[in-house]
Structures are given as structure tokens and as C-alpha cells.
């Protein structure tokens, strides 16, 4: 099963301070992603793993395929991370000294190409001194990625023609 | 003077409909309004449903999302992408 991907759908990575955004055709390594945000000042690390599910509205899903306009997608991802850092700074209720950031580090990894059932397509890790900021930022980043990042998913179903597989759209 | 040419990128449903991921397109006029590009591209790919796909899509020009289509004029040399509704995650 060879699928050709657009030449503009390539691997990419971009660092924003201590945070990182990655688009990769390879399996996402959850342990390494967690490690990449670790910090002795972090009392909390929130982790989200989005995985290919085996069913959609009664149909059996065999695999997902992702493609991205990588050049633009990675820009959008870094913008989302910057915004997450800023809004965490604004919303904090703790009397943290200014020198201590509310979010220490974020990592957003999105997979491209074929993702079999049961494998992660997106992993987001956020480290923070306290749990609340980590949870909030992790969810905010996920929702923004789904809304805005120039990545597309095609769902393949058992017993249906490959060329009729559906391109999904995230509802806003 | 040579006719202005742009590169059009097709992803997802737009790519499936046209059978292309990338296309060099010669614009029909100098200083071509982006707002006219939908119907022009649909005329290059008739009967594949591209017109309908374009209706629900946005544009990016040189890897920047376009907020207001009416404000953009293509001069030639741009990389224009059809941004279908996204579905990452």
C-alpha cells in the first residue's frame, strides 16, 4: 500500500524557547516527549495522547492518514505555544515570583503519514510548577491544534474502497 | 512581458478531487485578484467538485493565512494553497 504524499508535507521541527513543535512520519515516542519537558522546577506534567480509534459511526476504521502543509502548520503550532505561555502567565492565581514561569515547557508532536489503529497521532506534554496550569495549557493547545493547524486526516474503513476514504473536518 | 505564474498547492479533498498536489498556473491577467482564483481554478478542473471544496476552504499565500480575500492581489511568483477545513489531532 504505497501512498504518495504532497512534497510540501514533510517532517518539521521548531523550538520556541524551551518548547518544541514537531511534525514526524515516525512513531511518536511518548517517553522521550515527556522527558523533553522535564524540569526540576516542575511539580506537574500534563500529557495528552490522541490515538487512532478502531470505529467511526459503526464502521471499522483500519487506519488514518495524515498530511500537512508543513511550512505553515509548524508556524501555526509555534503561535499556539506562544499564546499558551502568555495566557498561562495572565491567568495565574498563585503569587509566583515573576522569575518563575507558569508553564515551563511544552512539546507538541503530530504524526504524518499512515497511523495504524492504536497508535498515537498526537502527543502533547506540558510541564509546570503546579497541576492546574499544566492541565489548562495542555487542553488549550490541543483544541487550538485541532481548530487551526494545517493538518488533514483521511479515515479508511474496512470493506470500503480506498479512493473513497473520507477526508475529515474538525467541527468548530 | 511574460504572463504571471503562481504555484497552487492542493491538500486533502482538493488534492483527491484534482489528482494533483501541486500545479503551476498561469494567471489570466496581470495583478490578478485572489477573489477571482476560485472560479478560475474550478474552470481548470471542471466536474470534479473543486468549486464546492473551494467554497468551504480558505487561502494561504506564501505560507500566510489570508484573512480578507478581497485585499489580496496576485502578482505572479506566489505559492498559493487551498486550505480545506483542517482535521489534525
UniProtKB/TrEMBL annotation, chain A:
SUPFAM superfamilies, sorted: Molybdopterin synthase subunit MoaE (SSF54690)
One GO-annotated biological process of the protein: Mo-molybdopterin cofactor biosynthetic process
Coiled coil: none
UniProt-recorded name of the protein: Molybdenum cofactor synthesis 2
Organism: Suillus fuscotomentosus
Upper classification of the organism: Eukaryota, Fungi, Dikarya, Basidiomycota, Agaricomycotina
Automatic annotation (TrEMBL), chain B:
Record-given protein name: Molybdopterin synthase sulfur carrier subunit
Alphabetical keyword list: Cytoplasm, Molybdenum cofactor biosynthesis, Nucleotide-binding, Phosphoprotein
UniProt GO MF annotations: molybdopterin synthase activity; nucleotide binding
PTM comment, free text: C-terminal thiocarboxylation occurs in 2 steps, it is first acyl-adenylated (-COAMP) via the hesA/moeB/thiF part of UBA4, then thiocarboxylated (-COSH) via the rhodanese domain of UBA4.
Family: Belongs to the MoaD family. MOCS2A subfamily.
Species per Swiss-Prot/TrEMBL record: Suillus fuscotomentosus
PANTHER family: MOLYBDOPTERIN SYNTHASE SULFUR CARRIER SUBUNIT (PTHR33359)
UniProt GO cellular component terms: molybdopterin adenylyltransferase complex; molybdopterin synthase complex
